[in-house]
Amino acid sequence: MSGFGFNDDHLSEPILSAIQSNPSLKLILTDHRCIEHLHNQGFHGSSVYWKKFSDLASKGFDIHFIAGSFADVVNLIPSLQAMSPAEQLANAIRRLGGGVTDDSLSEGLLQNSLRVGVVSSITANGVKVNLAHAGEVSGQYLRSHRYGRGEVGELVLIEAQQTMLLGRVTEVSLPDRDWEEITQDFGGTAKIDAIGVIRLLGSVHPVSLRVQAGISAYPRLGDRVFSAPGDFVSRIPRLTGGGIDETPPKVTLCLGVVSGDGGFPIAVTPEKLFGRHCAILGSTGGGKS
Fold first, then answer.
1. What is the dihedral of CA 12, 16, 18, 19, to 10 degrees?
2. What is the pTM of this model?
3. Cβ pair 47, 5 in contact under 8 A
4. Region for residue 18 given its phi and psi (left: phi exceeds 0; alpha: psi -120 to 50; beta: otherwise)
5. How far apart are CA 216 and CA 200, in angstroms?
6. What is the pLDDT of residues 65-109, one digit of tens each?
């Protein structure tokens, strides 16, 4: 807000009330006499509302003061165009920086080349998907890494409004009317209308990529489903903490590689592996000590 001295109570009071009733509201006050108004504390010709806003700012309300004219502030105003979910995701991928082991995430998490199908049914615990590639005789290799694109056991990412969902394919089947399409001489076809059942495992924040338990938003019919990139899967233990903004741990223990692919190692911190209770089991003479 610039160029308003708060001398009109019928305009100043609604602004004050809006801030008090909505703590998440941000207010930036600009005036070339801003410092003087704040020092006057409602006296010496300054409106009492300057003191009221100053008091709210000291209590933690999102109120900021800038001493300068509107012309001085113009260059400080950022672009207020909101990023789309796709742009937010692309920005998050770029913030992964040098931790990317290859080009697997250069196109983002939801890659057209890894699309599995579209959502056809939704329940509280899972979704059903019309699989686009279930009739193919094999999975797909992308940058030397294999993806099942709808195989049982595969981890997938699902569009869900302003977030993404992480799930696992638990079942693949054909409608009764299409059973005759599969015979001992079946050689693969893209025309099979297979249905996949996906168990929902958690949510993925579109900006921080933090993976957390629980479903923050459900998909809609027609939302797309993608195979989860192997590099993302390998990072899930880290992303369950604070997302990509979390400082990388100094010590990690390598557990293995992503199932079905030898190119993406999975590592966890000792704290996640050894909790309050840990047992080392083995036969006598096996080297437990």
1. 140
2. 0.57
3. yes
4. alpha
5. 11
6. 887 777 777 766 665 555 555 556 555 655 554 444 444 555 567
